[in-house]
Design brief:
- This protein has helices at 23-38, 58-66, 82-95, 136-151, 155-169, 183-188, 216-221, 251-266, 283-292, 301-306, 323-326, 331-347, and strands spanning 5-12, 47-51, 73-76, 101-108, 191-193, 196-197, 207-215, 229-237, 275-277, 360-367, 371-379.
- The chain is of the alpha/beta class and 380 residues long.
- The chain has one domain: Thiolase/Chalcone synthase (Peroxisomal Thiolase, Chain A, domain 1, 3-Layer(aba) Sandwich).
- It has a nine-stranded mixed sheet with strand order 3-2-4-7-1-8-11-10-9, sandwiched between helices.
- The protein is globular, with a radius of gyration of 19 Å.
- The model is unreliable at 116-120 and 125-132 (pLDDT under 50).
Length: 380
């Protein structure tokens, strides 16, 4: 029998605001949902991989809510790629034959407003004088402006990304926002860092998502193959060495590295992918990532968007969940939430937003720092 690894249970809580909750209590909710999805219990988990950017030992703290079992727990922090990294570690452990059943969970409590760096005393560094440098909207505004300089991508095209993803979210009951934002509304919203308006920035929300992974042997023993999703490829990368005098992560290069590794492991190419959940933390990121993931040729991301290919019903729909722009972006949970969305489509359980006939999907997250994780999933 092969050593293929399958997602047999997966779920997420509805992203939103949970003022009285903690990352571990949100993680416990998502974990129970994922366990129920495959008829397993926490006692069945041979190892647990838990991700959050908020505190330490979140996995052990989560078990206080649902039952301590003595299982090994590995806690992961990898910026926005945290959840996807926890998932990958569970995948690798089963692939290596250490375990037959593992849990991967990601959770986050987010503050409102803009994420800004902290000084050594733990207080926020004033943003005055920093805009245009290391503050997140500015980093991705620069990414958009560079794409515009090289390929002529327009403000309106970036805004159409937000219009598209908010429209997708209307059909996703677990998204933070389920509201359309017409193009004029997006373009006329408060300017944060040109060309990014407020409606082109991802939503800081609280959330959690979890997945149960199994070996092929165990999946078949339990009769779970009918809803299983095969993890076909997994790629993780950090920035390669360069002699440039910059400290900002090159999100383009790191994505291409991770994607190449995932495609090679999966034995497929971009042309085989039916749908994608990618890291649209800001609208300016999505168009370059079409190119970085090989969905279209270099410099053709804007035209690819304009063609309708990435919209519901298009050739390769992107962010049918609503994306980070509308579903929300709880850092530690995002990677597994993206996998949940793809799994729903491959199972044929995505409801009104279902992409018919989908057999292969791809997820992508980038953590500034640097980390990029790409996973390729296949209908079993």
């Amino acid at each position: 029998m092969s050593n293929d690894v399958y997602v047999v249970g997966i779920d997420m809580i509805k992203f939103g605001r949970f003022d009285d909750a903690k990352p571990e209590s949100l993680a416990a909710r998502a974990t129970l949902l994922a366990l129920d999805d495959c008829g397993q219990t926490i006692q069945d988990m041979q190892a647990i991989y838990a991700g959050t950017c908020n505190g330490t030992m979140m996995g052990q703290r989560m078990l206080h809510y649902i039952g301590q079992t003595g299982a090994p727990v590995v806690n992961v922090t990898n910026a926005c790629a945290t959840g996807a990294t926890a998932f990958r570690e569970a995948f690798i452990a089963i692939k290596a034959g250490l375990y037959d059943t593992c849990l991967a969970v990601g959770s986050e409590k987010m503050g409102k407003g803009m994420l800004v760096p902290k000084n050594s005393g733990g207080t926020a560094i004033p943003t005055e004088g920093l805009l245009g440098s290391g503050v997140m909207p500015s980093v991705f505004a620069q990414m958009g402006m560079e794409h515009s300089r090289k390929y002529g991508t327009t403000f309106e095209q970036f805004a159409r990304v937000s219009e598209k993803n908010h429209k997708h979210s209307v059909l996703n009951p677990k998204a933070m926002y389920q509201k359309e934002t017409p193009l004029d509304m997006v373009m006329e919203a408060e300017m944060i860092a040109y060309p990014l308006t407020k409606l082109m920035c991802s939503v800081n929300v609280d959330g959690a998502a979890a997945a149960v992974l199994m070996s092929e042997k165990r999946t078949k023993e339990l009769g779970l193959m009918n809803r299983a999703v095969r993890v076909k490829g997994s790629g993780l990368a950090s920035d390669p060495f360069t002699d440039r005098n910059l400290v900002m992560q090159d999100v383009n290069t790191v994505t291409r590295l991770a994607a190449a590794r995932a495609y090679e492991m999966a034995g497929v190419g971009p042309e085989d992918v039916n749908l994608v959940e990618l890291h649209d933390c800001f609208a300016t990121a999505e168009i370059p990532h079409y190119e970085n993931l090989g969905l279209c040729a270099e410099g053709e991301g804007g035209a690819f968007l304009d063609s309708g290919a990435t919209t519901f019903g298009g050739k390769v729909p992107v962010n049918l969940s609503g994306g980070l722009l509308s579903k929300g972006h709880p850092l530690g949970a995002t990677g597994i939430a993206n996998i949940y969305e793809i799994a729903q489509h491959l199972r044929g359980e995505a409801g009104k937003r279902q992409m018919e006939g989908a057999t292969i999907g791809l997820t992508h997250v980038v953590g500034l720092g640097s980390a990029c994780a790409v996973h390729i999933l296949e209908k079993a």
